[in-house]
Amino acid sequence: MATFLLDRAQRVKIGNEYSHYSHPNGGVLQGTLSEPKCVLVYINDLRTTVPLYKYVDDSTLFEICDRTDVSVIQESVDIAARWTEQNDMKSNSEKSKEIIISFAQDGNFRSTIANIKIDGRDIAQVCHAKLLGVTIS
Q1: pLDDT tens series, the chain, 137 aa
Q2: Is the separation of the CB atoms in 88 and 56 below 8 Å?
Q3: Dist CA 69 CA 58 (whole Å)
Q4: Global pTM value
Q5: What are the structural domain ranges in the chain?
Q6: What is the DSSP letter of 108?
Q7: Which of 69, 130, 134, 77 is nearest to 102 (CA)?
């Protein structure tokens, strides 16, 4: 496995044109059959205080709480953001979404929930989001 991962070169093909080769110094090889398994090995040590679901290079945090509970989701987002930085990766706050699903009758629950932030940037609160090809609302 080490010989497969070390001293790799990669390039991009667009139409019939190829870019110059580059030599990545980290990360996971894109476009290979082993990519999903390599990503899972790479992110295996990511742990948070709320449930975390990982699928290849997507991670989903979620929390179930009563309206009287104190949310700990921001703490988990901060843990994940620190982990990505320590592993020379980047969180994408623009691609990240927050969806709140509630069965509350009054609808006032949203005003009591603080916006989640990644690297100081608010994550968009949305009414529906796509997760692994499935729209959740």
Answers
A1: 556 556 777 788 899 999 998 876 655 555 555 555 665 556 666 666 666 766 666 778 888 877 777 777 888 888 888 888 887 777 778 888 888 887 776 666 555 667 888 888 888 888 888 888 888 88
A2: no
A3: 27
A4: 0.62
A5: 1-31, 45-136
A6: G
A7: 69
